Amino acid sequence: MKKFIGKIIHGDCMEEMKNIPNNSVDLVFADPPYYLQLSKGKRLKRADGSEVIPVCDEWDKFESYEEYDAFTEKWLKECQRILKPTGTMWVIGMYHNIFRVGTIMQNLGIWFLNDVIWIKTDPLPNFNGRRFTNAHETVIWAVKNKNSKNYTFNYEFMKKMNGGRQMKDTDWVFGLCKGKERLKDENGIKAHPTQKPLKLVQQVLLASSNKGDIVFDPFMGTGTTAVVAEALGRKWFGIEREKKYVEISQKRIKKYLKEINKKSD
Amino acid sequence: MKKFIGKIIHGDCMEEMKNIPNNSVDLVFADPPYYLQLSKGKRLKRADGSEVIPVCDEWDKFESYEEYDAFTEKWLKECQRILKPTGTMWVIGMYHNIFRVGTIMQNLGIWFLNDVIWIKTDPLPNFNGRRFTNAHETVIWAVKNKNSKNYTFNYEFMKKMNGGRQMKDTDWVFGLCKGKERLKDENGIKAHPTQKPLKLVQQVLLASSNKGDIVFDPFMGTGTTAVVAEALGRKWFGIEREKKYVEISQKRIKKYLKEINKKSD
DNA sequence: GCAAGGCATGAATCTACAT
DNA sequence: GATGTAGATTCATGCCTTG
Q1: What is the pTM (predicted TM-score) of this model?
Q2: Chain B residues within an 8 Å CB radius of A95
Q3: Four-way CATH pick for A8-264: 3.40.50.150, 1.10.3720.10, 3.40.50.10470, 2.70.150.10
Q4: Which of A58-62, A120-124, A230-234, A261-265 has the lowest mean pLDDT?
Q5: Staple partner for B217: which of A168, B100, B129, B225, CB 3.0–4.6 Å?
């Protein structure tokens, strides 16, 4: 496993995962494409005329549910294979995709522990007043299979963090990734459309891994998982399909490590 | 439709729904079996030695995911058929079943509006400290298909109820059905293991139906939907497989109507 | 320097109506 | 029915400018 640690592998996650040994990873955090199915060409505008920038990247496009399901089953199967019997996996999604993801997980024999609700403190409002504000995402937490025992869960620590009461699957209340935390490109536009907040990933790693554990992320994006893992003393590696994001992540991680070293001087 | 109104049909919902015309119902509220897959024979005990009574009724037993899925697809298909193009449907579930239910809904072309999170103020704690407290259920809100227009949604009313801000899918915070609201059998034991709180169903009906609308419940249980519909001036009918629950519901509704009439005297 | 106010923005299945 | 276009609609947060 040594050769993987600290690396962002550039490539297709289904292919690249084949090189990872069975039962070798303590924690999987996966933020897959959501398959949003937004109508083409139509732009949502705010009252002031500014546009809401939607997720319309190529990597979120699929021909059909069937295609999305086939894709999903492939990477989930590999994640299940490489996960240690004592490890756990987390998959985040929204109503567009999470039901399909959850069903496929169950069909593979992956065993659910919780479906955690990330409640957003500052969600995008519903502009046309025809739905409830979509203010959450769902994060499935699961073990390799029904027989998994002694999986890592820092129950007492989470309880402490929660003011002495056992933490609930609805206690995950965080803001979106905005402001300084949000990576910008050279034009000042968000570098990645779906960058996740550090706090969310931090809570995941604190809850279900220990120092020195190996954390794996099949969809690295801008490297949030890596940064949090570094900060918490976990080993990590991951895969990212887009060259652009690989480079952004590598820069981000280098910069982070430099800052850390400065502080410890 | 007249012959159905105010009736609890005793029978299998898939069979009985066949008699309901296409596009005839304004609102479906469905609380299907959750397929909990609890291990047989094991009893969960509280610290004081008392037993937690689980859901282990016959109606929640299925041989496999396949069987559950087949059952689910059948009743969902009928619900989609009888739903008006302007109507909406609600399906409640937990992580054991809601992912399968959601996937099947999408496969049938049912179009999601929201996945509402019912946050329980008084959940059963996690006794062994191996998971997060499961403190929510998921309620999928959807229309007949992608082309549904002018579906009923009392946006402004919900906004008002929410203190002037548009209601979020995470603003559904209610206690469990307990105390006086909870129906007891002759031995003082809960009459139905999964009786839903009136407030939850009330919010559903207030949000997505108007006075005089027809509300349908394929799994009536103890008749919560009927009682709320009566209280809010909606027409209603439903189906229940268990004779016991049909009788309990009928008694409950009669009692409720008597109370109403007394008050209006 | 501090307080107040302006402004940008976030995984968005947008709706209704006319042709 | 399908397609195209006009229209109406929003909240919390953080950063920056102004006073």
Answers
A1: 0.95
A2: 102, 112, 114-115, 140
A3: 3.40.50.150
A4: A261-265
A5: B225
